Amino acid sequence: MKTILDEIVAQKRVEILEKQKTQSIESFRNSENFLLPVKSAKVSILDESKSGIIAEFKRKSPSKGFINKDANVKEVVSGYEKFGASVVSVLTDEQFFGGSFDDLNQAKEVLNIPVLRKDFIVDEFQVYETKAIGADLMLLIAECLTKDEVYHLSKTAKEIGLEVLLELHSEDQLEKVNEFIDLIGINNRNLKNFEVDIEKSKQILKQLPTDLIKVAESGISDPKTVKELRQAGFQAFLIGENFMKAENPCLAFEQFVKESK
Ligand SMILES: O=P(O)(O)OC[C@@H](O)[C@@H](O)c1c[nH]c2ccccc12
């Protein structure tokens, strides 16, 4: 059966082909951002003066539809940083998540903490693009990549200075972890059917390499859950919808951080 993830990836491949008509890896290499140093998410997450939260800017999602269509990106992400976010995640997929490069650029303009490009990266072209648009790290989703693809894409990312967050959803994807991965995310949300199961993160955690930063992703809406996951051994928490759906995402974030300490 064709899943939403298959649909998104198929669409990505169409977009990449379209972009390749006018852009090339070479053009990315020559871009202004390309030689700029990246900010380390690893370092920021381990900085104990911050919350450990990777706060996400997400306008919509395939599972929820519009969450906050017209949110002001600069306002929201500045609040995230001010109240202790370790990293900001910005969706750059347009069709399914309502994101854009412009959102990422605007976020970059006001932030001092690292910015994660949240998208569906399936081709080397997008890795170079990620650096060219000024992101500090990128997401790779194990579910839609072979072990070889994860290896190749993460190696390329490291070569150009980007950090890599590899997202896993099940134990059998652990074999895709390699030496170029900086952070491992366990997605509580099954991208095939959108079911959320917090216990999932805890189960897989026990089997993760100890030297990597471990991120619990998705479906977190209670500060107590963060405490619980931190106790279990997670160092970072990727949270989007819970803040974005609030009338004032910054305030919601501030409150959440206080209660999750
Ligand atoms: O909004 P939530 O439930 O707090 O989840 C954030 C983040 O984990 C989620 O947006 C996400 C996790 N993996 C992804 C892959 C692609 C797009 C989005 C995602």
Structure characterization notes:
With about 260 residues, this protein is an alpha/beta fold. About 40% of the residues lie in helices and about 15% in strands. It has a single domain (about 5-260), classed as Aldolase class I (TIM Barrel), CATH 3.20.20.70. The strands form 2 sheets. It has an 8-stranded parallel beta barrel, surrounded by 6 helices. A two-stranded antiparallel sheet has the order 2-3. Helix 9 links the parallel strand 9 and strand 10 (about 235-240). Helix 4 (about 75-80) packs across helix 5, helix 6 (about 125-130) runs parallel beside helix 7 and helix 9 (about 225-230) crosses helix 11 (about 250-260). The model has no long low-confidence stretch (mean pLDDT about 95). The chain binds indole-3-glycerol phosphate. Indole-3-glycerol phosphate (IGP) binds next to strand 10 and helix 10. Its EC number is 4.1.1.48. One of its GO terms (biological process) is L-tryptophan biosynthetic process. One of its GO terms (molecular function) is indole-3-glycerol-phosphate synthase activity.
